[in-house]
Amino acid sequence: MSSIAFQSVFKRYGAVDAVKHLDLACAAGEMLALLGPSGCGKSTTLKMAAGIEQVSSGEIWFGERPVSRLAPGARNIAMVFEDYALYPQMTVWENVAFPLKVRGMAGQPAAARVGEVLQLLGLRQMADQSVRGLSGGAMQRVSIGRALVRDPEVILFDEPLSHLDADQKVQLRAEIKRLQKLRQVTSILVTHDQTEAIAMADRVAVMNHGVLQQVGAPQDLYERPANLFVANFIGEPPMNLMKAAWDGPRVVGEGWAVTLPAARRAKLSDGAIVAGIRPEHVRLLPPGTAGDAQGVVSYREPRGDADVLTVVLDDAGGVKGGRMVAEIPGPAAFRAGDRVSVGLDVGRLLVFDAASQTNLEAAS
Amino acid sequence: MAEITERSRGRSGLFWTAAVVVYALIVLFPIFWMATMMVKPNDAMFARPTQWLFTPTLDHFAYVIEQGFHWSLLTSFVLCTVSTALVVLIGTPAAYAFARFEMKGKDDLFLFILGSRMAPPVCLVIPFYLIYAKVGLLDSFLGLTLAYMTFNLSFYVWVLRSFCRDLPVELEEAAALEGWSRVQIFRRVVFPLLRNGIVATAVLCFIFAWNEFLFAFMLGGSSVTTLPVSIPKLITSQGVRWGEMAVVGMTALVPVLAVVFVLQRHIVRGLTLGAVKG
Q1: If you count Cβ atoms within 10 Å of the first and of the last residue's Cβ in chain A, which end, N or C, has fewer?
Q2: Average model confidence (pLDDT) for chain B?
Q3: CATH pick for A4-232 out of 3.40.50.720, 3.40.50.300, 2.40.30.10, 3.40.50.620
Q4: Cβ contact (<8 Å) for A72 and B179?
Q5: Fold of the domain spanning B67-271
Q6: Cβ pair A82:B170 closer than 8 A
Q7: pTM, full prediction
Q8: In contact, A136 and A166? CB cutoff 8 Å
Q9: Cβ contacts of residue A307 below 8 Å, gap of 6+?
């Protein structure tokens, strides 16, 4: 197992920079997720690690070894594809055995390895079936088996769960994580689904427009997003991001205001800001109760254990009231049209610089 | 209720089967007629009213062989096989390259290739004739082979490119990760998946070449005579030899039918694009 490091990596397609100045490391045995919307450069990054795409400039290191000039086959990596990429003319067994066959490994040792991997993935009974008729989940398991069979230094997962049904997704998610930990194989996972990234990866790297936005443990991204993009991208329902201004120690928004503790306020610079608070940190109280804002529930979306309510805030201080989304334990007592008092968890309020869009308290 | 729908479905099924059979009979009748002409004596050929019963004769066959028409059959067969083989050999990598590789002016080049097929053959045969006359390829086996290869190659590359495009590129990437070279990947991953497409397209090329008349007539004619070109020789000063024409016509038809029949499975699978996906 080796670590992976991207060092000032660029990828250009003509005039377009698909990946810009990427510095990113993945420790040996770690699973790192590359997360971002489509077209953010995450797949390109993965393909550069695989050698399917060439690096325009910069270097990629596997441990102490620079690999950017090596052919894909010389890198000792395996890849799991979105569309499985199984050889349709082969059986399950043959597909898994393929990497060994290519390397001239045959006979008893090869058969033992293939058998072990099939066992591990619960594919033993299907060994002699053609891969054509398998379900998506089974096909992807075969594909994972093919990746595991020769103990590669690195496994690259390219949206491995995108085409699967919800229940297969959850099942395979756990399985991939278990196998990855069991084999301690360094892995990079590309996904556009934050649930997947958070569930499977040790650390998550968020990308947008070819630029790495933030990398950290899922909890870090959730609690301390580095900028507005990450704040908005991570979390469901998304964070409330609201224009606001300083009034001494007070943060004043459109129809709401909170006061920060003096010690915290002292560390923050002045200027136009955007305040962020997650829906789960917004409390709704009966009308008339003291709160940070007053408003009317405009829409309620029941989600079973929790309800998501959109509140239109009252105008305050001559400023038109904005909207705020709250997630509260369900079933909520409030309905559309009800007046409510809104309480904000000040400790959870994030403050971003409106111009640079960065978190003013980020530990950069 | 279920019984009724079942029965009515059975009835409409019967109706459609009958309709298809009738249609097939209408379409096949000329071929049947040609088959009877092969063994019909000349005096019964156009007798009014039609003579359905006659003593079969092998005279027409004898004349056809005596006149050396079997050499034309052989010429046609070898010519079409060789030119189609060349098309497959050159066209398959070309189609793959057009589908996969980035190159300057690829789209223009591709359209240009198709353009050569869009022109009416008559427009092409004149330059061919002039060039061949200069380089001494007129009335030669090589000359006709090259001509057939040229006009089939564009079609073949055009069709096979879409087959190549339908192959998931990830299969090739997966193989590349295992350390295979481009050539190995092409031979051992791409080629097996393309096989149905190659067979289907090659059969079409073969049939085009087999039925071709204009090029064979203009560029060949005396020492290299294909079967279609040989048929007009049966319009003689003593009249049209219909029986012999039927024999040669049938001979021209049978190999095409045989090829299509034997390779039917490949052709149907190949022509339903996307069948290669797992």
Answers
A1: C
A2: 87
A3: 3.40.50.300
A4: yes
A5: MetI-like fold (1.10.3720)
A6: yes
A7: 0.79
A8: no
A9: A300, A301, A327, A328, A329, A330, A331, A332
